[in-house]
Automatic annotation (TrEMBL):
Natural source organism: Sporolactobacillus shoreicorticis
Coiled coil: none
Pathway field: Cell wall biogenesis; peptidoglycan biosynthesis
Gene it is expressed from: murD
EC number: 6.3.2.9
Protein name: UDP-N-acetylmuramoylalanine--D-glutamate ligase
A single GO molecular function term of this UniProt record: UDP-N-acetylmuramoylalanine-D-glutamate ligase activity
């Protein structure tokens, strides 16, 4: 890890004590900074807060007092805290530099970065790239939005490693000098507009992933996405490596006659992949393009695509129980993710479990997908139950049941299905109305399914 004097004796405020805040605070403190951590929650019983205090870091909880900004040189903000937060607004007024831990990690890392962003498919693609890069001259470390703070891994990463980082728009918006050697942009949909305001602002945040790249770097991008091309690829200075499901892109990755290619060299048959669904084929092409750029042998790339079964909670194959094939797609927290999941099982009838946090949107955009998909029944729960009920009725779903939660939905799903069917949890909503996280929701789903073994 690089040791930079730029943080020595600087007054740094870490806003939000999550995984990234904890790791960043410890790291910056070790580089000689005067660190204060602030969180709106009560941290009196928080182990991380106690540990930080033991190292001489000041911890202020239960609110965001503006006086903490007095004399502050740098704010390291939790990505999920919006810029409308009064503390952040005041910091902007005071011209205090505001970054996320991605920026700190990028400045300190000896290892190069492969950064992956997009509205959907980030986690699956990041994991695929991590597995493929094991066939390169680098030892990959997978981190970032996938669950491991980047500031915790840069301390052990060397020039022999490559950090494969899943990056959200929230994280990227707080970068200034971050410079990945390879940047991957999967897609841009109308997501997180409550945070960014407009799709243009959202795209600009995503574009930060390539803002500091040069011709010595690579931008791997979705040539089928007009927004990705217009907002990001056309403006990038990096070497451009496209991937496409629609077009033969000779300088990138594509599918032709059901075979996956990279730079016109065949890799494997597309139907041999371990992951179902056209959207996962697109994720695979992105990963193939990255691996191709790094010279990973074709056989290793193919082996990974055949054996990889997916990220946890992202169209995760669970098992066959009483003849039903079970998939946990709890990470499908929006309409687009669920739409893709519904078309991942050609020739199979689906019992769908859906619902969750109401963010104010309707589900009209889901209606055409519900009509096209082979759905025999839907179980609805959570705050969006009535809105989804309306969409399902408009889509003429034959059986629609309202249930209290996932726990109640699983036995109903078994009762309404037969051997050969797919039972799919793909909520199209966030989980926070009834569960702490989409992970908890998915784990509960699997636990309830296991009762039918």
């Amino acid at each position: 890890m690089k040791t930079l004097n730029r943080f020595k004796s600087k007054k740094v405020l870490v806003l939000g004590l999550g995984k990234s805040g904890y790791a960043a605070a410890k790291l910056i403190r070790g580089l000689g900074a005067d660190v204060t951590v602030n969180d709106r929650s009560d941290l009196s019983k928080n182990d991380h807060a106690r540990d930080l205090k033991a190292t001489g870091i000041r911890v202020v909880d239960s609110g965001h007092p503006l006086e903490l900004l007095d004399g502050i040189d740098l704010m390291i903000k939790n990505p999920g805290i919006p810029y409308t937060n009064p503390m952040v607004q005041k910091a902007l007024e005071l011209n205090i530099s505001i970054v996320t831990e991605v920026e700190i990690a990028g400045l300190l890392s000896d290892a190069p970065f492969i950064g992956i962003t997009g509205s959907n498919g980030k986690t699956t693609t990041t994991m695929l790239i991590g597995e493929m890069m094991k066939g390169s001259n680098y030892a990959p470390i997978v981190a970032g939005n996938i669950g491991t703070a980047l500031t915790s891994v840069v301390q052990k990463a060397t020039e022999e490693n490559v950090i494969v980082a899943e990056l959200s728009s929230f994280q990227l918006l707080g970068t200034r000098e971050f410079h990945p050697h390879a940047a991957v942009v999967l897609n841009i949909f109308d997501h997180h507009l409550d945070y960014h305001g407009t799709v243009e602002n959202y795209a600009e945040a995503k574009a930060r992933i390539t803002a500091n790249q040069t011709a010595a770097d690579a931008l791997i991008y979705n040539a089928d996405s007009e927004r990705v091309v217009t907002y990001i690829a056309e403006k990038s200075r990096a070497q451009k490596v496209p991937f496409s499901l629609k077009t033969k892109v000779a300088d990138g990755a594509y599918v032709s006659e059901k075979v996956i290619y990279f730079k016109d060299e065949p890799i494997m048959k597309a139907d041999e992949m371990g992951l179902p669904g056209e959207h996962n084929l697109m994720n695979a092409l992105a990963a193939v393009a990255v691996a191709g750029v790094y010279g990973v042998p074709k056989q290793h790339i193919a082996d990974v695509l055949r054996s990889f079964k997916g990220a946890r909670h992202r169209l995760e194959y669970v098992d066959v129980v009483q003849g039903r094939t079970i998939y946990n797609d709890s990470k499908a927290t929006n309409i687009i993710a669920t739409s893709k999941a519904l078309h991942a099982f050609p020739g199979k009838e689906i019992v769908l479990l859906a619902g969750g946090l109401d963010r104010g949107n309707t589900f009209d955009a889901l209606i055409p997908e519900l009509k096209k998909a082979p759905i025999k029944a839907v179980l609805l729960f959570g705050q969006t139950q009535k809105k989804l009920l309306d969409a399902c009725e408009k889509a003429s779903i034959p059986v629609i049941r309202e249930v209290e939660n996932v726990e109640a939905a699983v036995p109903e799903a078994f009762a309404l299905s037969k051997p050969g069917d797919v039972l799919l949890l793909s909520p199209a909503c966030a989980s926070w109305d009834q569960y702490k996280s989409f992970e908890q929701r998915g784990d509960i789903f699997i636990a309830e399914v296991n009762k039918f073994r």
